[in-house]
Structure formats: structure tokens, C-alpha cells
Amino acid sequence: MSRVTGESSANGGGPPVQKLSLVVSEQAVVEGATEILKVIRPDWCRDNVRFKLFTDGITNKLVGCFKQPIEGADTAETPEPEDVVLIRVYGNKTDLLIDRRKETENIQLLHRHGYAPALYATFANGLAYQYVPGVTLTPDTCQDDAVWPLVARRMAQMHRVQPDGPTNPEPDLPAKLDQFLRLVPDRFTDPHKDERVWKVFPSVAKLRNEFEELYGRLLTTDSPVVFCHNDLLLGNVIYDERHARVTFIDYEYAGPNHQAFDIGNHFTEFAGIDEIDYGRYPTPEFQRRWLRVYLQEYDKGAPVTDVSVQRLYVQVNQYALASHFLWSIWALIQAEHSTIDFDFVQFGATRFLEYRQRKDNFLALRCEDE
User: Fold this and answer.
1) φ, ψ for residue 221 (rounded to 5)?
2) What one-character DSSP code corresponds to residue 370?
3) Rounded to 5 degrees, what are φ and ψ at 88?
4) End-to-end CA distance of the chain, in Å?
5) Of 259, 246, 18, 249, whose CA–CA distance to 124 is shortest?
6) Which end of the chain is more exposed for a tag (fewer CB within 10 A), N or C?
């Protein structure tokens, strides 16, 4: 483990973000977290800090660092946010997929707007950031009437954020898909994985042609480009029941993209990850209620018509196809490089087959005014 050295940078009016040279081993995240705490929480007594490894993620490793006010206190009790630091260690080779500088800029931008946790520090292969009270969504709670309107409104608020930079940015989707396709290996290191992948997927050249055709169709829907999270799986939404609010976390893929992609991507995640069930994909009736609440917030109180809801409904379901396509390719890269114990080949195959099954029906959807 390398020595901790570093500097600090501005954090949008908050405490400065420490930049550390530390590299944290995936096999020693607690030890690495201890070194980071020495810099960002020097007043914490090491003997009074408890660590909890979170195992839900399939991209990174996450450890919670809990300052215990009373010896032997139960970390399961709701702690005060200032008494917890979350430390995320990037997964192996994920720098191939993610612009980490852009990620930190996105977190700081959204934190200024009150939509993201504070960033405390960056290190060579990870981040330390603010704890957000609450629980992650599940395939059941994401359709709870107390929860989904909060998600719809928060997404609309995020989509109205104006980031620094070009006033008419290009959407991330085509460039990201191109990047992913370039990273798919011609032959997987594991022969068994290689056999499983190519039983389901066509060649990279055919995948590229398939997406170009799909994206050409999607562009005709004129979905606006807004600031998107781009990865709103259920584990990236924290629900705080006590304060009736939700917070989005993990802005690794955030950036300008089609509005309908962000919503459609979220809807595809209703199926879950560990035991994917696309029978949980939201019904048209649920979607239209969700989208009406979203538009009421996004359009700032302007009248929301049935036609505008239907137009967004069509866009969202058609862009959900792009979500399936994108993450199925992402899974192939993870299958080659990730050290996390997860069947990425199965995940990718499931999403690609769902894309194929839904494609004709979703592309046949039409707005009422067409």
C-alpha cells in the first residue's frame, strides 16, 4: 500500500476535497480506509471506528466507516451522517469504462444543487464521500406509492440542472456504446466464458450495425438532451422514509444524454439484478402515472396533457431498448476484467435477450398525435 500524500481542491463552497496518492487494494479495503481516515478524519480514534463491508455492488467495493460514540454501539442503528464516511474502491479495470475526473466533477456539481452527497476525498482508485441516511430501493419498494413519486420528481429536478460547459452538449449514449464495443475482447481469457458469450451474442461488427440502426430510429423521437444519471439501478437510489426524500448516488456514468434514456433505464432496473424478473417491468398504467408526476416537476407547473405523457411514454420505452443494449455490452467487458463474484455473462445475456424480445413491440409504439 502506497504512502498517503495529497493536496486539496475546492468543493463548491463546502470543505475542500482531499486528493490522496493512496492506492487501496481490493483485498485490503479496511486497511486502506483506515489510512484515508487518518487524513480526512484525524480526530477519529481508530479504536472507536467500526467498518462495514457492503456486498450489493457489482462494479466497485464499498466500506462504511462508523464513528462509535459509545463503545459497543450497534452500527445497525441509524447513525448521524457526520459520524459515517463511505469509501468506494473502484473495481478492477473500470477506468477503461469510466472517466473518473468527470465523475468527481458531476458529484460536486450535483452536491451544489443539493442532489448528491458531499465528496470528502479522492484517491488513486476510489472516493470517500458523505453517508446518506436511508435504504436502497428494492423491486418491491420502487413501485411503492410513497416512494416512486419522490424518484420521479428528483429525476426531473436533476434533468433541469445546467452543467458547466457547452450549452448544447452531445448525448453520451452513442460515444459510450462505441467505447464499450471497442473494449469487448475478440476472445475471452476464460474458454468457458468465451463459449457462453458467443452462443448468445453476434459478432462485435454485427452488434455495432445493430446499434446504429436502433439509434437512428431513436433519434426520430426527438428526446431532449439533459443532464442524466445514466445508471439509476435500484441500488443507486436511497430512500429516507423519515424525511420522505430520495437521494441518487454513484454518478460514474452521469452526463448529457437523452431524457428518455435515463427514465427508460430506471424502468428496466425494476427487474432487479441478482434474480432478474422482467415481469416486474412497470405496466403502461404505472408508467403513465410516473411520467405525469415527472412532467409536472420538469415543466414547473405547466399543464401536463395526456398527449405529452403518451409522447414521453413512447420515447421512454424505446430508449429502454438502448439501455438493455448498452448494459449487455458493459457486462461482457466486466466478465473479462472484474474480480467481483458475479455472473456477468448471464447478466449480459439476459439483458440482450430482453432487448431482442421487446424490440419490435417497443419500436411499434406511437404517440396519439401521429
Assistant:
1) -80, -10
2) -
3) -110, 125
4) 61
5) 18
6) C
Residue 300 DSSP label:
T
Q: Are 340 and 59 in contact (CB under 8 A)?
A: yes
Residue extent(s) of CATH 3.30.200 domains in the chain: 20-131
Joined together, the cell numbers standing for residue 339 give 474480480
Secondary-structure class of domain 20-131 per CATH = alpha beta
Q: Which of 8-17, 47-56, 87-96, 339-348 has the lowest mean pLDDT?
A: 8-17
Tell me how far the alpha carbon of residue 250 is from its chain's centroid.
Answer: 5
Nearest CA to 6 out of 15, 17, 14 is that of 17
Predicted confidence (pLDDT) per residue in 357-367, tens digit: 999 999 999 98
Q: Where in the chain is the domain with CATH 3.90.1200.10?
A: 136-363
Query: pTM of the predicted model, to two decimals?
Result: 0.89
**CATH topology (fold) of 136-363:** Aminoglycoside 3'-phosphotransferase; Chain: A, domain 2 (3.90.1200)
Cβ pair 347, 326 in contact under 8 A: no
CA separation for the pair 59, 50 (Å, rounded): 24
